[in-house]
């Protein structure tokens, strides 16, 4: 089995999370500048056995696509060209940013640390990945 990599796509920064090889535990990987995302993913996949990529699917409360979906669709086209051998799944990412912020509070992070948007993005990617793992069990 290979790892599953999750992407919480943003126009400026993108949070990433990954499973262990047994696909049991979702852990935050890092946050990268979105302009460097494809190159980061290509480099990561060349070093690690990645079986699948999970990308967040932002939706409004009425189940329609969020504004950011336009940018994600462009990214997905580029991703398919860059890594055609790796399947991509989408996972509803509603509330992940709020849940990530609450996770930071619950874990005792100080107010200054909770302002770290990169950390929020990484935790959001972890929540997306955990949601995917739960849905396929």
From TrEMBL:
Keywords, in A-Z order: Cytoplasm, Hydrolase, Nuclease, Ribosome biogenesis
Chief location: cytoplasm
Top EC class, one word: hydrolase
InterPro entries the UniProt entry points to: RNaseH-like_sf (IPR012337), YqgF (IPR005227), YqgF/RNaseH-like_dom (IPR006641), YqgF/RNaseH-like_dom_sf (IPR037027)
Short name of one Pfam family: RuvX
Subcellular location: Cytoplasm
Protein's UniProt name: Putative pre-16S rRNA nuclease
SMART domains named in the record: YqgFc (SM00732)
Residues making up the signal peptide according to the UniProt record: none
Organism (species): Winogradskyella litoriviva
Keyword Hydrolase: yes
UniProt keyword Membrane, yes or no: no
SUPFAM superfamilies referenced in this protein's UniProt entry, alphabetically: Ribonuclease H-like (SSF53098)
EC number of this enzyme: 3.1.-.-
